[in-house]
């Protein structure tokens, strides 16, 4: 029989499929974290392939902060419907009551909406395995996180006490109350993600493509004024700029880049010629080099 | 030389062409072995840097970090790119396995960066388990060291076929060819002694960049490849795996409706085509491939590494963990093996204890014998060993609780490599590489006897069973067991009481109270109890039996439903207050070691059939309750 060498994308896809099937076969109540971003879009696409012709046998969970871009909310409903999957949306009721927002509450915003919100949702539904779209190339502490990443009953990650992970044999054993975070795209890079989206024609939020959008400049970041909750400073006027986003989160925390890229090849072209890394656009990492590791230990995805 | 510097122009000029080229890249996973001093992190940092995988903001962080905690003075410390976690950066060493990514036009690379010290052997084994290639780093000033031998042994053990000997820091020995040749000759002699027949030697400098991505003018005498060129062209494991017979373990049965039944898995070795005859193991049933299903459409054939869903022409039993193989070359099925075991947990291996063994998607109960020997990973000497501690590597027999299909590890990592999971802590405590099955299992057959266990039981007019009482010392097990037996005797039941203390005076008088001995104690009692149930008796046992895994082991040797776990639930404070035998006082005073509840754990049953709360009822009432539940 003739040899056929798999390409790197085929191998990454096969690995992710293998991982997802292992989780479904071993977990009692798995869920897929769906953030509506491009990594989530890829992960969802791979999930459809992994279980075809069955629909993916788990729901999607969106941990909402009420501060995502409007375009993301539109995408969210459509994606779940297309995949034939249940969509669970969770908003931390405490954060909702206290009106936690990125403008007035700084780090507390991420902590309450995302970290606490995620823990609440996992506890509420009793999920014992949660897929996440994180990649090891994003950030240093991710680089050594396992694909099956064990969490204590209080959702903590202990980077010093990770299970050895050999071959493609994953240990999903855990006690009641404990859970796993599983990262099927661990070995993908940003370029792999974009190439895969391109090759597979995956729908992504239009915000990834350049368009004229109302923006203001704050602390060296271009922020989009997505709705009228954005408090403008004295004399500050939103300016229409041709921008796109390399990563999507809460709109007041997500920096845009000026761009004319309106097609995927153009986006990839810009990405390859660019000189700043992806997370630069997210305010969360800037405090200190080890900030992500701390957040992850506390239960952040 | 590599093309990595030429791509920028193409990206700018013709992105579609660039994407087309990059769609056809292959992927190589490799591991770098060496200690911090050998410049390992610097080498990886250099590869990332040279292949432009570092962005400006990362470079800015790197520069500021280099000045703050770097070891290169004002220069860039490439190693800081790779040393991830905060605590590790403070200590100046990498502790875990970190994965790094870079790419050229030809390949995407995943580098497993693992620490070099002996106390991190498990991390190196972990990183090596998915690698196609190992880069063994040597400091040219030091030559072949103990750690070079250890790393090479481990890389070879875990099945890495491509070894690169990177003689680093050539700049510090003035690019001296004679010194380099001597190091390579020295290494060759060692490599051959452990079975490494081929390797590729390259003189490099991670710091100065010699022979990493471009051929160095400093080593005109080097006629072999430069490092990146070699990484770009070396043969992939995936290609080798494709030439072997077809094997795919079933991960998940895909059953969306009554009309579709597919078997999902990743092809371990070989290839499969529609119409191929296949055999499902361990059942041995045969069928034909009717479809190879993917979301992108059915395939005519699929190869090793692909994740697919197979449909068979016949309705045969096949579930998760079973193996679909080429009909004409199936693998062996056995329940006893010799294997290399690599221990990865702070708690030592307990020979005789049952662990979960996960071999691909198969999960079975396994016991590991006392090691035949342990390997000194520095000298490769075989040492006598009673157990294996953290990072120890030994050879032992493994017995599993049912027949499983497997292949020797050297034939297939997927079918011959397993992990061991502690049943209590759920930690991954070890890894194993199967050598071969043991003939012993095949040569001992059970002798059939004419008087069956049913006959024995019917003569006594009762259903045999084991009432297994477990609980702390002083919880009241023996008292309640004795009362139960007395009451059953009055009801004309044929019983026998096996008591912990009594058995230790005879059958088990050679055993102490270490974890290993406790496991063996319960194993023997379990076997005796099983023989007695074969004889038709109702067996009552009173043993602390502190470990869940051993109680489950006994349940496993009994006929289904004949093992009744009775938890004599007395809190430690209460048992200690009673202290009928004065043992708690002794244990607290340090005169008695390994005492359950004090310095040895007790794992309460999670779902006992009967639970007796001795703080709420008398021993007599407890005995009545037990009998009422048994003989309603």
From TrEMBL, chain A:
Transmembrane segments: none annotated. GO terms for molecular function: ATP binding; sulfate adenylyltransferase (ATP) activity. Residues 29-255 form the Phosphoadenosine phosphosulphate reductase domain. Its EC number is 2.7.7.4. The keyword ATP-binding applies. Signal peptide: none annotated. GO terms for biological process: hydrogen sulfide biosynthetic process; sulfate assimilation. SUPFAM superfamilies: Adenine nucleotide alpha hydrolases-like. Pathway: Sulfur metabolism; hydrogen sulfide biosynthesis; sulfite from sulfate: step 1/3. It catalyses: sulfate + ATP + H(+) = adenosine 5'-phosphosulfate + diphosphate. Keywords: ATP-binding, Nucleotide-binding, Nucleotidyltransferase, Transferase. Belongs to the PAPS reductase family. CysD subfamily. Heterodimer composed of CysD, the smaller subunit, and CysN. With CysN forms the ATP sulfurylase (ATPS) that catalyzes the adenylation of sulfate producing adenosine 5'-phosphosulfate (APS) and diphosphate, the first enzymatic step in sulfur assimilation pathway. APS synthesis involves the formation of a high-energy phosphoric-sulfuric acid anhydride bond driven by GTP hydrolysis by CysN coupled to ATP hydrolysis by CysD. This is Sulfate adenylyltransferase subunit 2. It comes from Roseinatronobacter ekhonensis. The lineage of its organism: Bacteria, Pseudomonadati, Pseudomonadota, Alphaproteobacteria, Rhodobacterales.
Automatic annotation (TrEMBL), chain B:
One of its GO terms (biological process) is hydrogen sulfide biosynthetic process. Its EC number is 2.7.7.4, 2.7.1.25. GTP binds at residues 34-41, 113-117, 168-171. ATP binds at residues 471-478. The active site is at 545 (phosphoserine intermediate). InterPro entries: APS, APS_kinase_dom, CysN_GTP-bd, CysN_II, CysN_NoDQ_III, G_TR_CS, GTP-eEF1A_C, P-loop_NTPase. PROSITE patterns: G_TR_1, G_TR_2. Gene3D superfamilies: P-loop containing nucleotide triphosphate hydrolases, Translation factors. Keywords: ATP-binding, GTP-binding, Kinase, Multifunctional enzyme, Nucleotide-binding, Nucleotidyltransferase, Phosphoprotein, Transferase. Residues 25-239 form the Tr-type G domain. Pathway: Sulfur metabolism; hydrogen sulfide biosynthesis; sulfite from sulfate: step 1/3; Sulfur metabolism; hydrogen sulfide biosynthesis; sulfite from sulfate: step 2/3. SUPFAM superfamilies: EF-Tu/eEF-1alpha/eIF2-gamma C-terminal domain, P-loop containing nucleoside triphosphate hydrolases, Translation proteins. It comes from the Bacteria. Sulfate-activating enzymes, NodP and NodQ, may be physically associated. Belongs to the TRAFAC class translation factor GTPase superfamily. Classic translation factor GTPase family. CysN/NodQ subfamily. HAMAP family: Adenylyl_sulf_kinase, Sulf_adenylyltr_sub1. This is Multifunctional fusion protein. The lineage of its organism: Bacteria, Pseudomonadati, Pseudomonadota, Alphaproteobacteria, Rhodobacterales. The gene is cysNC.
């Amino acid at each position: 029989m003739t040899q056929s060498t798999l390409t790197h994308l085929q191998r990454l896809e096969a690995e992710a499929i293998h991982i997802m099937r292992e989780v479904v076969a071993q977990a009692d109540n798995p869920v897929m974290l769906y953030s509506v971003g491009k990594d989530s879009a890829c992960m969802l696409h791979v999930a459809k392939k992994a279980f075809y012709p069955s629909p993916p046998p788990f729901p999607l969970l969106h941990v909402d902060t009420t501060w995502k871009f409007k375009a993301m909310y539109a995408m969210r409903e459509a994606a779940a419907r297309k995949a034939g999957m249940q969509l669970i949306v969770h908003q931390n009721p405490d954060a909702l009551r206290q009106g936690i927002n990125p403008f007035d509450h700084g780090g507390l915003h991420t902590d309450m909406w995302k970290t606490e919100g995620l823990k609440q949702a996992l506890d509420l539904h009793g999920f014992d395995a949660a897929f996440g779209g994180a990649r090891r190339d994003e950030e240093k502490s991710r680089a050594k996180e396992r694909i099956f990443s064990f969490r204590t009953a209080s959702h903590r990650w202990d980077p010093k006490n990770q299970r050895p992970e050999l071959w493609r044999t994953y240990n999903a054993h855990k006690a009641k109350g404990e859970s796993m975070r599983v990262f099927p795209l661990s070995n993908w890079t940003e370029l792999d993600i974009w190439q895969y989206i391109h090759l597979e024609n995956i729908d992504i939020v239009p915000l990834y493509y350049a368009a004229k959008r109302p923006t203001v400049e704050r602390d060296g970041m271009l922020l989009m004024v997505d709705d009228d909750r954005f408090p403008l400073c004295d004399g500050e006027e939103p300016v229409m700029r041709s921008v796109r986003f390399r990563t999507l989160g809460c709109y007041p925390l997500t920096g845009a880049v000026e761009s004319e890229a309106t097609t995927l090849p153009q986006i990839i072209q810009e990405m390859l010629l660019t000189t700043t890394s992806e997370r630069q656009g997210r305010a969360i990492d800037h405090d200190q080099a080890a900030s992500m590791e701390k957040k992850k230990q506390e239960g952040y995805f | 030389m590599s093309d990595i510097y030429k791509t920028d122009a193409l990206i700018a000029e013709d992105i579609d062409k660039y994407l087309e080229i990059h769609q056809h890249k292959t992927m190589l996973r490799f591991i770098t072995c060496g200690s911090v001093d050998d410049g390992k992190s610097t080498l990886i940092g250099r590869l990332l840097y040279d292949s432009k995988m570092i962005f400006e903001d990362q470079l800015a962080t790197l520069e500021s970090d280099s000045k703050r905690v770097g070891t290169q003075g004002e220069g860039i410390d490439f190693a800081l790119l790779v040393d991830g976690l905060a605590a590790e950066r403070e200590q100046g060493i990498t502790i875990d396995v970190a994965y790094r990514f870079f790419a050229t036009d030809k390949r995407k690379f995943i580098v497993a960066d693992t620490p070099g010290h002996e106390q991190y052997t498990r991390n190196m084994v972990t990183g090596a388990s998915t690698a196609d290639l190992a880069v063994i780093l040597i400091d040219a000033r030091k030559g072949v060291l103990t750690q070079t031998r250890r790393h090479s042994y481990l890389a070879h053990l875990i099945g890495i076929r491509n070894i690169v000997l990177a003689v680093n820091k050539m700049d510090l020995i003035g690019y001296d060819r004679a010194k380099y040749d001597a190091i390579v000759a020295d290494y060759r002699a060692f490599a051959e002694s452990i079975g490494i027949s081929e390797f590729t030697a390259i003189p490099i400098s991670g710091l100065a960049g010699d022979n990493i991505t471009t051929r160095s003018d400093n080593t005109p005498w080097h006629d072999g490849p430069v490092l990146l060129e070699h990484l770009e062209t070396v043969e992939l494991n995936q290609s080798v795996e494709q030439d072997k017979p077809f094997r795919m373990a079933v991960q998940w049965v895909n059953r969306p409706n009554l009309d579709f039944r597919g078997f999902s898995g990743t092809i371990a070795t070989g290839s499969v085509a529609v119409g191929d005859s296949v055999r499902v193991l361990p059942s041995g049933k045969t069928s034909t491939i009717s479809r190879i299903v993917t979301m992108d459409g059915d395939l005519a054939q699929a190869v090793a590494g692909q994740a697919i869903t197979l449909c068979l022409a016949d309705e045969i039993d096949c579930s998760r963990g079973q193996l679909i193989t080429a009909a004409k070359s199936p693998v062996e099925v056995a329940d006893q093996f010799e294997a290399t075991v690599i221990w990865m947990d702070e708690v030592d291996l307990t020979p005789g204890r049952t662990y979960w063994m996960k071999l691909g998607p198969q999960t079975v109960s396994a016991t590991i014998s006392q090691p035949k020997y342990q390997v000194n990973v520095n000298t490769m000497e075989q040492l006598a060993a009673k157990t294996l501690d953290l990072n120890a590597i030994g050879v032992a027999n493994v017995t599993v609780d049912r027949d499983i299909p497997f292949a020797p590890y050297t034939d297939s990592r997927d079918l011959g490599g397993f992990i061991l999971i502690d049943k209590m802590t759920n930690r991954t405590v070890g890894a194993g590489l199967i050598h071969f099955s043991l003939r012993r299992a095949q040569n001992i057959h059970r002798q059939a006897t004419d008087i069956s266990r049913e006959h024995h039981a019917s003569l006594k007019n009762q259903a045999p069973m084991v009432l297994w009482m477990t609980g702390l010392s002083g919880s009241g097990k023996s008292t309640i067991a004795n009362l139960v037996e007395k009451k059953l005797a009055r009801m004309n039941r044929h019983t026998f009481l096996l008591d912990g203390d009594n058995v230790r005076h005879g059958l088990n008088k050679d055993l102490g109270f270490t974890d290993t001995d406790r496991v063996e104690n319960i194993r023997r009692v379990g076997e005796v109890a099983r023989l007695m149930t074969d004889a038709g008796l109702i067996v009552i046992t009173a043993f602390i039996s502190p470990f869940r895994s051993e109680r489950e082991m006994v349940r496993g040797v009994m006929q289904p439903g004949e093992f009744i776990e009775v938890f004599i639930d007395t809190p430690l404070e209460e048992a200690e207050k009673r202290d009928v035998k004065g043992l708690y006082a002794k244990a607290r005073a340090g005169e008695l070691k390994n005492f359950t509840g004090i310095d040895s754990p007790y794992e309460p049953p999670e779902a006992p059939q009967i639970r007796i709360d001795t703080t709420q009822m008398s021993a007599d009432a407890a005995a009545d309750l037990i009998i009422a539940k048994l003989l309603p």
